[in-house]
């Protein structure tokens, strides 16, 4: 798993400022709140992942704001926007010569919807870029081989809005007679998808949806519910969406080589870790630590 780097600290503060913008906090109060949460950064363990440390800070901030879901309206807006695109995106997948691969491309296009990092995004441009670009790191063929032999496939969701794009991938896998389970967060954090988003976007009608029992960014197995962990460990393939899931699962033995990371590299630290350029799209198989040792 990734550890904190110096560049993560200003990113924590940027996420805090984005949170203020979502609820319209005035500058004077925002400055006071930032000064209140700054000491929290000194308590964060740099050996932990940026996703976990960011969550600790955001939990403190949400408590100070007395608002457990500052991104609620933004999440609703992104879901509505993505749902309007669904018929066109479904047509793209269905008319493709390789529907599974195209569904993966569409799913990664939705990964641009990350208000924790990017305040503004262009979904149409993201779709065009994803469909017209090659994966900078491409383990898609290995993924296809794994999927062919798989019975149960678990998709780890990332953000609201993006969940609509993931729905096309989930539906495509289901057409291949796979048991598909989609996982959302057990509580609100940033604009991450929850069960409410799954219901709003029709994901609960498409496949089985579970929550992971926690409201931490990414998938930190030690914090997840026993029910989620049972599904995680008993799945034949795990599709991990987004940077948060990558940060928390990358290289850990528990994720094994059955886990595939589908994301856009949105920060320099993640891009360096993946050995790609900032903004590149990635389809990478997990390499557990034991494998790293032998190479």
Notes on the structure:
The protein is an alpha/beta fold and 295 residues long. It has 14 helices and 7 strands. The chain has 2 domains: 8-65, no CATH class; 72-294, Rossmann fold (3-Layer(aba) Sandwich). The protein has a 7-stranded mixed β-sheet, sandwiched between helices. Strand 2 (152-156), helix 8 and strand 3 (179-184) form a beta-alpha-beta unit.
Topology, pairings included?
Layout: H1 8-23, H2 27-43, H3 50-65, H4 72-94, H5 99-109, H6 123-132, E1 137-138, H7 140-149, E2 152-156, H8 162-175, E3 179-184, H9 195-200, H10 203-206, E4 208-211, H11 226-234, E5 237-241, H12 242-249, E6 259-264, H13 268-274, E7 281-285, H14 289-294
Parallel strand pairs: 1-7, 2-3, 2-5, 3-4, 5-6
Antiparallel strand pairs: 6-7
Helix pairs in contact: 1-3, 2-3, 4-5, 4-8, 5-6, 5-8
């Amino acid at each position: 798993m990734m550890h904190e780097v110096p560049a993560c600290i200003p990113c924590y503060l940027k996420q805090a400022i984005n949170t203020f913008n979502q609820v319209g906090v005035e500058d004077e109060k925002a400055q006071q709140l930032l000064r209140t949460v700054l000491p929290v950064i000194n308590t964060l363990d740099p050996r932990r992942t940026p996703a976990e440390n960011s969550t600790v800070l955001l939990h403190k901030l949400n408590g100070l704001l007395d608002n457990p879901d500052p991104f609620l309206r933004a999440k609703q807006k992104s879901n509505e926007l993505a749902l309007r695109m669904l018929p066109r995106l479904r047509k793209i997948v269905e008319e493709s010569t390789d529907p599974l691969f195209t569904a993966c491309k569409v799913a990664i296009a939705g990964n641009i919807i990350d208000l924790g990092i990017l305040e503004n995004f262009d979904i149409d441009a993201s779709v065009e870029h994803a469909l017209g670009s090659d994966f900078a790191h491409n383990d898609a063929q290995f993924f296809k081989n794994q999927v062919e032999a798989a019975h149960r496939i678990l998709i780890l969701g990332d953000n609201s809005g993006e969940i609509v794009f993931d729905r096309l991938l989930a539906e495509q896998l289901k057409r291949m007679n796979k048991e598909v389970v989609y996982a959302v967060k057990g509580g609100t954090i940033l604009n991450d998808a929850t069960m409410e988003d799954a219901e709003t976007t029709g994901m609960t009608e498409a496949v089985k949806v579970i929550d992971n029992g926690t409201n931490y960014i990414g998938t930190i197995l030690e914090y997840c519910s026993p029910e989620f962990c049972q599904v995680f460990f008993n799945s034949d393939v795990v599709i991990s969406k987004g940077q948060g899931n990558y940060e928390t699962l990358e290289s850990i033995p528990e994720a094994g080589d059955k886990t595939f990371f589908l994301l856009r590299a949105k920060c320099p630290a993640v891009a360096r870790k993946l050995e790609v350029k900032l903004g590149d799209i990635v389809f990478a198989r997990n390499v557990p630590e034991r494998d790293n040792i032998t190479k």
